[in-house]
Amino acid sequence: MEFRKQQDLDNILTWQASEVVQLYDAGGLCGYDYEGCPVWFDLVGALDPKGLLLSASKQELIRKRIQGFELLLKECELQSQKLGRKIETIVMVFDLEGLSLKHLWKPAVEVYQRYFALVEENYPETIKHLFVVRAPRLFPVAFNLVKSFLTEVTQKKIVILGGNWKQELSKYISPDQIPMEYGGTMTDPDGNPKCLTKITYGGEVPKSYYLHNQVRVQYEHTATVGRGSSLQVDNEILFPGCVLRWQFASDGADIGFGVFLKTKQGERQRVGDMTEVLSSQRYNAHMVPEDGSLTCHKPGVYVLRFDNTYSLIHAKKVSYTVEVLLPDKAAEEKIQGLEATGSSPAQ
User: Fold this and answer.
1) Could you read off the pLDDT of 91-104 as tens digits, one per residue?
2) How far is the C-alpha of 301 from the C-alpha of 264, rounded, in Å?
């Protein structure tokens, strides 16, 4: 009841999100499975997470997704009346084509974590199947970030489909209920194969929608980089496929930043003796905080280097957070298995 009141669920179906969220938050209700359960397409890879969060609040984006869930439950009621039997569960299709490091941006991941937590708390046992299609190699890392917010029951309903995902989907959903874009026969009345009247396809958010130029973040560490010197932050990567993610801001003036891989373990190395992974350059992080990530293809010690060697007069204060994101092993093995059989999910 508290959740219903907090989210004003009695009026949520008539609530209208801002224009930018309506146009660029990708997904939509489209079709029914063979048993009459409604199907929701969630186009994660088509999202511009930073553009959305610079144009709308986290609360609005989460509310828009809760609205989608309430829409699905309303559809279950209508289907129950129409078919004369209880329809209480939904099918979700997560399309990950285009999923990249930008989707692992911490504020964006937090939106999905909160959304999944709310769904599990307030709509338990509602998900019938959760299909994942066109999953790239980055998927195991992305999944590991949200997995803990899903119950074991929901995790068991996740089905990662391989390169033949269009044929596999049609085993659960009739082709006339699947958009032509996804291997079915459904089109819009004007013949559009994407069914744009039902599904929003996202895309890059135009900067004209931006309300601010940064998202407020909290940093785990603060340090002073002395004049004419540098700060090295070591991160040990034990196996390939991990993602190194960082956010930083400087105080009062710019700071240099680059990422390097040590060639010798257990000792501090000069920058010239290390392998350059991300070339060092100066960032105006005192004006707009910086963030980034990279996939570590080799194990070893990766050094994030804050460079103030060019400033012989001023020391610089930097605030930063660095994380190593690990892949979910089961998801990684599943994707490797599909690739080994020539059925890469990313097709």
Assistant:
1) 999 999 999 999 99
2) 9
